[in-house]
Predict the structure.
Amino acid sequence: MPTIFRRYGYRFHFYSNENNEPPHVHVTGKGGEMKIWMPELIVEFAYRVTPSEQKRVMKVVKENVKFFMEKWHGFAAKKK
C-alpha cells in the first residue's frame, strides 16, 4: 500500500490488490477514509470525513491529479 503523498494529516495511497480497477486514490487520516476515481474526480465513498474535509481533500487531489495519475500508471505497470 504505497503512500504517494501526505497533506493536512491525510495519506494519499493505493492498495496493491486493486490494479484491475480504473485509476483511483485512497485517502486516509483523521479517523476517516475516501476513495476518489481519477481523472474524473468522483468520490466513490467517504467514511467519517466531514463535508468540509472532503472539500479540502478534493482540492488537493484536483491540484495534484496529474502527479497521482503518473504514480498510478507507474504502480500498475510494476504489478503486471
Summary: The chain has a mean pLDDT of 92.
